[in-house]
Structure formats: structure tokens, C-alpha cells
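Hello, quick one for you while I still have it in my head. A protein chain has come my way and I'm curious about its shape. Can you walk me through what the C-alpha cells say about the fold? No rush at all, and the record is pasted right below.
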Amino acid sequence: MSQAMLHMYISFAGMLLMFVSAALALFSRTKLRGIVQKVVLSFSFICLVVSGLIVFYIVIGGPTST
């Protein structure tokens, strides 16, 4: 597998984590209450931070040669 394909798959994982984060945040704010809401929101925030780090890694890494 080339470096460019690996970066593409990593960026897809970052986008998926962003989608999961948004969906969990919306779900927890509308449907959940109490400690469960806080746990789900915390997991959503962790997903958002990890996806941000992934995007930062891909962007700072720059273009690949192949």
C-alpha cells in the first residue's frame, strides 16, 4: 500500500469520527438525561479531539510523492 493511499484511509477515519461525534452529541442532547448524557457527550468530545489530531497529522504531513 502506498503512502498516499494510507493517508487517504486515515483521513476517512478522521471524517468518520467527526460524523460519529456530531451524531452522538445530537443524540445525547435530545434523548438522554443525567449521567448517561454526560458520558455520551464525553465520548463525543473524545472522538472530536481524536479526529482533529488525525486531520492535523494529515495536513501537516503535506503532499505525498506517490
In short: The chain has one domain: 3-61.
